[in-house]
Predict the structure of Probable membrane transporter protein.
Amino acid sequence: MIDLDLLGWAMLAVGALIVGLSKTAVPGAATLAVAIFAATMPARESTAALLVLLLVGDLFAVWMYRRDVDWATLRRLVPAVLVGLLVGAVFLGLASDAVVRRVIGAILLALLAFTLWRRRSAADAAELGRTAAYGYGWLGGFTTMVANAGGPVMSMYLLAMRLPVKTFLGTTAYFFFAVNLSKLPFQVGLGLLNLQVLAIAGMLVPLVVIGAFIGRWIAVRISQRLFDRLVLVLTAVGAVNLLL
């Protein structure tokens, strides 16, 4: 049984608001929600509760950004993501919570360093799309399966592709809606998504909706430069938190 006190519920409420905000405005913020849920609930069960909330946020993001999608980028990622999901399911069944968190944190820091180097060297985005889609796609599938932390990986890829804010958010929305939906059978099969976890997630859904609408208000007002910096900073914060 998962026993939550008032402070625990308050932390989960903040995490749910961040989920909604991350889906419609600042994708990198989702790693903060991952950390909050993992600190409040058993880490493995927290991935299942968070998955339900992420799907709710995905639905709102898909609806809000349905006209802003780079379908060519999504098609390049699909094969590698499927491989990453399968490998991640096996890893999640075998690894401990501590190992899961540290592996994801190390991957995110490496990708952050690579992205900063690419941006500083002014490398061609189209070239990156052809050569790195498999690597980013595989890592995105793997990290989203084991810790619901695929957002920063894909953010680094789409940031390197230099997509405009709305196209970035729309492409992310469709990508993660499909990926998160495909994760449900794995979470049920591993025994992580049970009735108690579902009930906890259900009570937090309204806060995800509120966060999604706040995020939409922010997204239409944020500059491209500030958006890029927020993605980078939040990815770094989330990665360090997972390592510690």
User: Anything to note?
Assistant: The two ends are 26 Å apart (CA to CA). Residues 6-243 form one domain. The mean pLDDT is 80.
